[in-house]
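fyi for ur records
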Amino acid sequence: MIPFIALLSLLIGVSYLWVGGFILAADCRGIVNRLFALLCLMFAVWSFGAAGLSLSGDASSQVFWERAAYFGAEGYVCVGFFLFLGFAGRLRLLRDRPLILISVALPMLSLHAANLGWNLVSPRHGPTLWYYAHHLICHTVNFIGLAFVWRWSNRTRLRRERLQARCILWSTVVGILVGAAVEAVLDPLGYTSQGNIVPFFWVLGISFAINEYGLLRISPSNATRFLMDGVEEQAFLVDPAVSVAELNASAGRLIGKSGTIPVTDLFLEATSLKLKLERLAVSDGSHLEIGIMARTPDGAVLLRTLFYLVRDKWADPIGFVGIAHRWSQVGDLAVRYRLSEREGQVLNFILAGARQKEIAVRLCLSLPTIKSHTTSLYNKLGVSSRNEVWAMCVEDRLKAPEEN
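which gave:
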């Protein structure tokens, strides 16, 4: 008959896999979702290793299951550290400050080598240096990750994020302490590494927060994609980190990519867009309508985009939804007024809100040359300012989206 502890560990291990799969099914593109699913996998390995220890009878199989259990325990700590950075929006620190990555990776790799290579972490060898190092390093890395979450909770301006950060802090600390207490009680009785059961309740709570609050941020899964699929215009989602995700097939065809990309990879005037969105977030307004040039597989195109500010139930800004209209009749305008190719390019940039200096940089031309093209363009169109160009475009119905 299967011992109760072994059966419980097996059930918990399967549950970890189910929760991780559930989070991936909700949104498999977010980095935090992937890290959380990997965390659940490490918990499952820990649980299956603990179950194998309870069921195995010979020494060789026990060594295998011990290695599996401690590999899962050390793996969850390492992945958990990156997950905490993801919650706090600080994953880019690993690129900007590689010393942080090295300081975490080296001790964990040493533990993995000692465990998988020589099974030195096992308590069967007695309270060795490696056994104590395993617990010390794992708990230290846990609390370093929590320090990033604590700092984030003090720096964020969003009430929702502060509440979520505190939930993560308290639930993790309590989970660590209870897990350590369980191991201290059960280890002398021969039930090694049964602390894998305790984090399951923490995993359930965090998975609820991920699914309910979109990883503490606005994400494509929160925008109810099936509602956007019927929208002919290109629909985008811009999150607080200023990255862009397509929300419908029309936007996907325009971008030519799937998933979340930096705003600088899509829009030519990304810096200007960031500033305008930041001003919108702190203003009393709810939307912003601008023209902006976008990079596409077919080249740069002009989009007339209406950005809506999205707020949570506490009225804190959490992101933007953009509905874009592709300007499809600029080419007709160029033919009608006999614009040169260069004048047509200048017209596109003017409609996108670019100034002459920026147009010169974009087209790799001198400023006097751009001024000359602009004067020639204005003369052909019969206007004297960019505001008159906009008015003329509105009259010519240039806001009509391109036919699909």
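Residues 218-326 form a domain with the Beta-Lactamase fold (CATH 3.30.450.20). thats all i got for now
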